[in-house]
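Quick one from the shared queue. A colleague (R.T.) flagged histidine kinase as missing a structural entry in our internal table.

Convert sequence to structure tokens.
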Amino acid sequence: MTKRIFRSICLVALTVFLASVVLFMGVLYEYFSNVEQAQLKMQTTLAAQGVTNEGIDYFHDLKVKNYRISWIDTEGNVIFDSASDTAEMENHLEREEVREALSSGYGESRRYSATLMERSFYSAQKLDDGTILRLSISQNSILTLLLGMTQPICIIFVIALILSIVLAIQVSKKIVKPLNEIDLDNPLSNEGYDELSPFLRRIDSQQKQLRGQKAELLQKENELNTIIGSMNEGMILLNQKGKIISINPAARKLLDADTDCIGSDMLSLCRNLELQEILTKALQGERGENIIRLYGESYQIDADPITSENIVKGAALFFFNVTEKEKAEQIRREFTANVSHELKTPLHSISGYAELLKNDMVKENDKIPFAGKIYDEAGRMIRLVEDIISLSHLDEDADDMQRENIDLYTLAEKAVQSLEPQADTVCVALELSGVPAPLNGIPQLLYSVIYNLCDNAIKYNHENGKVMVNIQNENGMVVLSVEDTGIGIAPEHQERIFERFYRVDKSHSKAVGGTGLGLSIVKHAAKIHNAKVDVKSHVGKGTTVIVTFPK
């Protein structure tokens, strides 16, 4: 902008200078022309007096330098001419100044010679005898005058040019300085040209709009970053060359990548062939998905192409951890298979015994034992179904069950009393100790926790063994411990004993009549109460299960 202002000022200054020179020369030229015309008239009057007094003798001693004198008779013939031979001169009767002098006594005219580039002034006066005395003087044209003044004009031009440049620099800086000092953040606070006020008001209005839009965009960006950052699923955005342009914390953690991975090639972070195949399809415009193993866990990979005007601009990768889902699906399949097996076994027994009885193929003395076996297998089925129903309720988080303020010690007393006949049958001593422990929970679930733990401790104990139940208040927690002197659990089985239908010793479990669901019920009931379950066991020495409830 400064250069444009500078050039404009210089151009205007030079234009004004040239126009001024031309105008000045024109005015000066016209002024001196008028002066010369007046002098020529005066000289004509003096010369006319001389000719009147002396006649042609007046011209003999006359020394003329600047003027040309002509004496013309009444017929227009030149009698005398100070510059040319009269015999060769044409008749002057038709000359403007001669005609005017003949008619009015005095005449003058101006004529321009394109050949000589001169302008001539003529002055003619009629004498007493009727003849005409004419004086003329030549004046150079204004162009010739300008050419003759080239040197001084050039000097003046150079001086004017220098002054114009200096002035243009100073003026342009002065004009531009307020513009450069405008505070765009606070346009209305600027002191400048009044002409800038509408412009500054418009800037202020636009600034307010931009600040509002910026704040809105920033809020949306923060919301988006918060959502993306809090996602448990990994998300990666890639450009059309497979370079990472965005990655959320979950994806960085999964791929063990740092914040400098932006701009890196995706395949440099993970060289899984299946992932490469999915990504290649996505960058070609084809959506892909697959479940792959990464770092020991299962992930569902969804790759969606990002298109604009039917052109693939990149791809979005989503990582969904489906390890637990697969485990749950595996447990479901195993549970279904186990339920089928557990139900089929007693049903086959019942069906077999009943068929024998129906066909009267059983001796009279064996009918009662057969009926007893049918009864036992039916009871086993009932217990299995009851446990399955209990687990079904627990899977639904027991929403239909009401919490109450109860004493866990009192609840343990009831469970111990109900199990004492069973313990006496297998010669196992069942003992309860501890202190009152108030707790807010679901009574039937808490009872099932104590009952199942004690039931397992009795079933998997030695003859003349012990089961010790203890209730304590420790550090704001209620601690339930069930300790036995039974067969114990090997370390490799301790992590799986809470799985449904999992049995450490299947032959022994069948002998004692367990369903394989008791500890699963314990685990789910504890989870609903936000309790922690710990197992300590030594093979051949016994097992201790500790359940810690928050108050």
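The longest strand covers residues 297-308.
The radius of gyration is 62 Å.
Added to the table.
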